[in-house]
Amino acid sequence: MEFQFPVELEEELEREAHPLAWAMKMGEGIGPRGLEMPSPELAQLIVSHLCFRHNHPSLWKFLHHAMSSGLLSPIHVLSLLTSRVIPQRRSQPEAYRLYLELLSRYALSFDASMTDSCKVKIIESLDAELQLSQTFGAQVLDLGHAFVLFFFSIVTSLIDSSLYDWGFRMTTVDKPSRAVASMDHQHMDVDSSGNYQMERNEHRQQMRQKNSFMAIEVLERLTESTKAIVLLRLVYLNMPEKFDGLLQRLQFLEGNNLAFSKSKSARQFLARLSGNIQKVPSLEYQLKKQQLIRMLVNLGSNNPVSRCNFGSGPSGCWVPFDIYMESAVDGKQLLIKSAIVILTEKIYTLKMFNRASWQETFLALWLSALRLVQRERDPLEGPIPHLEARLCVLLSIVPLAIANVLEDEAKLHPSVQESGYGNGMDRKGFGARKLALISSLQLLGNFSGLLCPPASITTGANNAAAKAASFISISKNAKDGLGSGSPTGGNMMHLIVEACIARNLIDTSAYFWPGYVPSSVVSLPDTSPSQRSPWSTFMEGAPLTDSLIDLLFTTPASSLAEIERLYLIALNGSLEERPAAAKILCGASLSRGWNIQEHVVSFVVKLLSPPVPPGHTGPRSHLIDHMRMLSAILFGASSIDTVHILSLHGVIPEVAASLMPLCETFGSLIPTSSNKSSTSDEPSIYMVFSSAFLFLLHEMGNSMKQLELASDKPIYIDYYPKLRAWYCQNRSCIASTLPGLCGRNPVHQVADKILGMIYLKITKPGASSGNSLTPSSGNVCGSPVKSGEDAGQMPMLPAWEVLEAIPFILEAILTACAHGRLSSKDLTTGLRDLVDFLPASLAAIISYLSAEVTRGIWKPVPMNGIDWPSPAATLPSVESEIKEILASVGVHVPICSSGSSPLMLPLPVAAFVSLTLTFQLTKSLEYIHAVIGPALENCASGYAWPTIISSLWAQKVRRWHHFIVASCSRSVFRQSKEAVAQILRSCFTSFLGSLHNSNSLSTKQNNINGLLGSQVLTPGVCPSLAPGFFYLRSYRMMPDIQRVNDVIIGLVSEYVQESAARWTSSDSPLLKSGQASLSFAAVRAKEVATLGASLLCASGGFQLVQELYCETVPTWFLSSKEEKPGRVSAVARILEGYAMSYMLMLSGSFVWGVEEKARSCSFSRRGRIIGIHMDFLARVLRGNISLCCDPATWKAYISCLVGLIVSCAPAWIRQVKPETLRTLAGGLKGWHECELALSLLERGGVSTIGSVAELINMFN
């Protein structure tokens, strides 16, 4: 229905009747005309007459009464006026003044309580009048969204108008507002309606000048409101480029203050306006909020209780650093993702969650890494990573992680410096992180107990201190540099500082820190002759003689140039120089060249993939020409410590990608008679293939699925047909038994041929055949041996063909032994001959025998010392020591023991164990031990087998006794779920104190050394292990790792309730203040949750965190729980909910990170899993699900979870469905947590802007 301007109203205008009467009269006429209130039609009609046909003061007053009474929508009227009045402000200064008055009163008035049709009309009108969709590049979704864009458009339009009126022009990041842009081609005193006559009225000219300043004054008053700041913050969060344009306008105004030189008040208004806008990114709401919830969410901020008291001991808030580092140096599993990247993410995460400064964060990081090194003082001797890997973390991984943090700060600086403003608008932050690093390094001197260097690197520490002393001695300020240092030489601090200087994190001014250079180092005369570095000799061009090679191998390089030259020699040198250079590269420069270790690692990886030389053509692979160099690099890089260093630097995917073509190429070559032996000094085709193949399997853990997840650019096994064929055959052999041998199949023919050679080698004169039975047919499988074959020679075949035949060979000889046709000794000898012939066959042997064990078709054989080796001599002591180790970590369950029954092992296990006992423990066979170690541990997981196998190996290698016994102790977790619960409880007890000790929880400092140990082994007849260390080495043995979640969440709940009861009890001898007691209880709850999250992430990573979000926590809320005698306080319930939310958030942050930009796979997984959990919460709030937990726990959980997400991981919110966010916000609003609801919605993206606009009416 068309709404005509009433004739009576025109008559009222002429008579100047009271505008309030008009408004009442018009309101009475709206209903009979079938129109709605507020009326978009009436607003359009009134404004069209007002501008400027009836530009009468009474009509402006009518607008005021109509908007205040709800007859007209304020934002609709103001948008109509904006598009009409601002362009005509020069010719209509009175109208512009009245418009500014209305704007100051109604710009923030918003009421969404109208019909949908009315909303649609107003939205369409706002969009058309202000061109919102075009300006902001997005469709206007709802009325609240339109309100936000409307207000921001008003702010920018008024600033642009004032700038234009004062004669200023600027280039902004976005286009000028439409109102101002339409006047760019006109004179200031000429309006857009074509009035070219100069305005000569002095009063109107003064009004124009005052209006420009009044616009700034209006904006200053508007932006004082929290509601306005919220609206602007929505633009800041969702359209940062538009907000940056606003900041540039303000900066331009401040930089051109000549216009305000005569107006002090104008300068003050502008300064306040700028201050108001700069509050937007750091807005902290001041709504009423539950005091306890606020304290929990902000725990750590300006709270000395939660900060690390480094003087008295480490704080529990930083234990994730220690747990991650200790887990990272475990040789059982290689890291696919770089420890540098992971540690960088943890630095940001823990700083944010702990509300800590950069100094505190860096200091905690250094202390954790120092504790990691100190634990290796009395290590377990065995085939595991040792001190080199731990020093790699301290002196290479940690400095590189800190370098990432400093680099991130440097990347933020240009944008801040360029505009003077940025999204953070914090100029003081630049360089703050580097200053914090320097401060944290200086504080390390307070921890002398952690700075004592291990014996093997004392010389390196002394050299670092001497380097600083030498630098000072030649400086003009030498006397100033001599501090009151200790009378000892160098320590770990000197090595740390050198590692930081080498990476440009700090400079040599560190040498002048008070007390940094010990006085003894400076004062002692240097009477020893200066020893020339072998690297100097090498860089001068000296040939690589044997003596120089040995010196370079044992002396770490000191510069990148030395490594680069070595790399070029390895690629392009003479035939003798190439392997020598590769060997040197994998020596001390890789294991102890911490200052350049990342570069050495990079060159090692490059050498595994030598480039194709220019002009190379033909089918012959260029890799063959590098065979000697590749053999040296494979041998050097495959040692246990070196592999783990490569793992820590995150190059395992690249190494695997390099090994696959090596395997494909050398496995397809037919060895010649001169290049077939795998035992000679010269590298053979078989040896190069075997080194690469076993190295690859070691890295991938026999699982090609790991390779698929290894990199953003996966290397597919399909690219390598031979490798793929073996992989598929290996899987089929594991899945089912093999068919019998037949002469028609080529693979069977190869197997038969090798079997014949093995048999002839076993039975030739001089060979010990034991009690073997001679097969009547001439060999173990019944096939005759061709007379032309030499009994001592194996056939010359490509390695892939040999590997393909291995399962059939094993099937035959194992069957022969089971039927008594082959003795146990000859079986072992035959297996060893096979490995000596092709070391890579060990992989097929392990795979086949492991699969046969699971089938259960082989009878056990007696380990009696006659047919098979006997463990009887050491078995009792091994079993006794296992019980003692388990008891020391709080595990009291029966262990696997054979008792008085005969000692038996299944034939495949006995054969494999006997084979492993034939290998010598030399450096040259470390690549063998790296493969058989995990396989042996898996085979030993049977009921009574661990102690038998451990006893056999303890007899063979006495110096590995403690390592073997400790490793065997872990097998208890395969058989007993109760053992898993007990070891986790011991972890909590060792760190937090015992629940059964009335003073423990309230007096004991959290104890990282109690959890992980101050050293790996506690000396004694039977060394003991710390519970946390033992758990981190054992959780991979647990078949039901998902149970860890249930145990941890139960322990967190139990400890929080108990500690809350202790801390808040009225008879507490420590504190009488209720607020202080509550703070301590909250800190303890946070530490409990931190420990739980750290152990959970270390145990199962993404898998367990996903289950925590999707299953464990929801089930915990839905399940009824047994209550202990006595009433649990409300505070304990609230702290329980807080601890659960904190553990959930922290564990998720460890796995996915808190940043907005993540890897695509991590980003999608994070969004999906967080969405599932949030949907569960929303369904409960809607009443679709009933809970069994206490309401106080549930409310605290949701409130704290939302608070933590908002403050620590706001990027997560945009991955949650808008309707879920609205439901959560509605629940929080019902609990009077409007601030949290608003914080949640404003970070939900464009789709929740409208909901925020509706919610801000809760502000006064």
List the helices and strands and how they pair.
Elements: H1 7-15, H2 19-30, H3 40-50, H4 57-68, H5 74-85, H6 93-106, H7 116-130, H8 132-136, H9 143-165, H10 178-181, H11 202-223, H12 226-238, H13 240-255, H14 264-278, H15 291-297, H16 319-328, H17 339-353, H18 358-374, H19 387-419, H20 432-443, H21 448-451, H22 458-473, H23 478-481, H24 492-502, H25 519-523, H26 534-539, H27 546-554, H28 560-572, H29 577-585, H30 588-591, H31 597-607, H32 627-637, H33 640-648, H34 652-666, H35 685-700, H36 704-708, H37 721-735, H38 746-763, H39 799-818, H40 824-837, H41 841-855, E1 860-862, H42 875-888, E2 904-906, H43 907-916, H44 926-939, H45 945-956, H46 961-969, H47 972-975, H48 977-992, H49 1000-1003, H50 1008-1012, H51 1027-1032, H52 1043-1063, H53 1074-1118, H54 1130-1152, H55 1160-1181, H56 1191-1208, H57 1218-1230, H58 1234-1242, H59 1249-1255
Antiparallel strand pairs: 1-2
Task: For the structure shown, list the relevant keywords.
about 1250 residues; mainly alpha; two-stranded antiparallel sheet; about 0% strand; elongated
Instruction: Give the count of helical stretches.
Output: 59
Helicity level, as a percent range?
A: 55-70%
Q: Give the structural class.
A: mainly alpha
Round the mean pLDDT to the nearest integer and report it. Answer: 82
What would you call the shape? elongated
β-strand percent reads under 5%
Record the strand order, biggest sheet.
Answer: 1-2
Largest sheet: 2 strands, antiparallel
Radius of gyration: 39 Å
Q: Report the end-to-end length measured between terminal Cα atoms.
A: 38 Å
Kindly state the number of beta strands: 2
Poorly predicted runs of 5 or more residues: 181-190, 192-199, 301-314, 415-430, 478-487, 524-529, 702-712, 767-792, 1068-1073
